[in-house]
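Bumping with the actual sequence this time:
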Amino acid sequence: MKLTLAQQFCALGDKKTNLDKIENVVKTSDSDIVVFGELFLSGYMCRDNLTKLAEPLDGPSAMQVARIAKEYDTHIVFGMPEKAMEPEGLYYNSSVLVYPNEEVGCYRKLHLANFGPFEEHQYFGYGNELPVFETKIGKIGMLICFDCFFPEVSKIYALKGADILVCISASPSTTRPFFEKVIVSRAIENTIFFTYTNLVGTELNMVYWGGNTAIGPRGDVKAKGEYFKEDVVKCDIDLKELSTAREFRPTIRDTRMELFSELQRLLEKDIRSATMDSKKEFGK
């Protein structure tokens, strides 16, 4: 599999410019899949304008990317603010996978960032599905930025048969040390390919560090982009490495599934406790 991770400046609020950037990278990539960053279509820091910039998956922007994918016979992943058809009025921070036949798949961010400079809960609904996309280049699972800090997400994808995890991101420079550690861990603990595609440049008070990275199933870095500069990171991925890695360290085979039941029990306990506390507070 030939892979391109596009580390590009994003024009805030300018979808036409960003769509042109997608096509300019894709037409020179000669890759099986080309990946762009989180909310690349609109820019991350659009805030109240995000709902105005959002489109459905069959909207003009996704259809233009589908045309590009077909023309250059490649898969394209990019981030966009998605306007849901049902229920009406709900928006998602989505990662869109476009196939060479113009088919469109979508993953909606599960873990919205709501701390420090991040205000995603004000604009987006929570996703609730972990789809594995079947493609001619392998089985793909998708994550968005903060999702990769929750190991259960990557683990579930691996248990569902994903070969490669594609994470798109809008990570500012202050979080770089965390991401560079976590993404390698996700690859090693699941013996899976993990790719990370970040924005680069400055939007309002956010400075994105780039650093696009492709990681093998034993934690080896296959390719890495520069920091704070536009870059196009290319590498070849051989899915045969998966069987070798999983024989060497069989984390998927030896996963204790009953522990997921324990997680569910703890979650239900926390929900019951929170409900009781709220009732007590209300009764005062």
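The tokens above came from a reply further down the thread. The longest helix spans residues 258-282.
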